Amino acid sequence: MTLAAAFVLAALLQFGLTAGHLWWALAACQPILVVVVAAARRFDPVGVAWTGLAAGLATDLMSERIIGPGAIAGAVGGFVVATVVRRFEMEGPLYWIVGSLLAAACSEAVWMLALLTLGARPDHGLAGGLATVAMTSGAGLAVAAGERAWGAWQSPARKRRRALRRL
C-alpha cells in the first residue's frame, strides 16, 4: 500500500514539476522513477519491470507524448535496476543513488531508441536527457539522505542517549 501511495505522490510531484514555470533542469526530474527503484526492494525483476511499465505510461500521459515508448523504457529501466540491485546486493545510500541513476539512464536511452525506431522526433535532445539523468539521480540522493536521517533519528543508540540524559 505504501508503494502505491508513493507512486501517486511521485506522479503528482512529477506533474507539478512539469506543469509549473520552473527552471528546465528541475522540470527534467522524474521522481516516479525513484518509486521504480523502491519497488526493487519488494519485487523480483519482472515485478519491477511491471512497475516501470506503469511509471512509463504515467509519464507518457503526463507529458502528452506518444503512448508506448516511455512505458517500454520504464519497464526496461526497472528490470535493469532490479537485476543490478540483486546481483550486487546493494543497500543503503548506494542503493538509492545507483538505482535512480540506472533507472533514469536506461529509461532515457531506451526511450530515445524507441522513438528513433518509430521515426518520431524526441521532445528533448542530449542535454535534456542528461538533465533527466542528473536530476533523477539527485532525487535518489535526496531519498538516500532522508532515509539516513530517519534511521539516525529512530536509532536505538539515540533513544538510549536521550534516556540517559533524562536521568
What does this structure look like?
With 167 residues, this protein is mainly alpha-helical. It has one domain. It has helices spanning 2-19, 24-27, 32-39, 45-63, 69-88, 93-118, 126-153, 156-166. Helix 1 (2-19) runs antiparallel to helix 3, helix 1 (2-19) runs parallel beside helix 4 and helix 6 (93-118) runs antiparallel to helix 7 (126-153). The chain is elongated. The N and C termini lie far apart (40 Å). The model has no long low-confidence stretch (mean pLDDT 88).
Detail the topology: elements first, then pairings:
Elements: H1 2-19, H2 24-27, H3 32-39, H4 45-63, H5 69-88, H6 93-118, H7 126-153, H8 156-166
